[in-house]
Design a protein that fits this description.
Blueprint: E1 7-16, E2 22-34, H1 41-47
Antiparallel strand pairs: 1-2
Length: 111
Amino acid sequence: MLITSPCVVSLTWRLQDTQGNLIDELADPVEFFFGGDDLLAKVEEALLDQGAGFAAVLHLEPEHAFGDYHPELVFFEERSVFPEAVEVGMQFDGVPKVPAHRTCPPTQSTP
């Protein structure tokens, strides 16, 4: 069976930076909806019309993946600003309210 839209695909992957450092690894297959919003467009392009067992190495530029790195969007917060039941993989939207008496460490240095 060839991959066409719409269908469900099972994928594994290794995500590395340009220096080859491992960022993320999905060793056990996970199902994704092909033809929706589950996968990056360049990943879908590579998978289109491929069959079971297909393997590829893709080089994705930031604009085709998760965008450029913006250090001003990185926040270091004390554990106390998060709920008790924090688990790996959870995401938080927005900037936590910082009490007036507390300041955050800088997220970037000046050259």
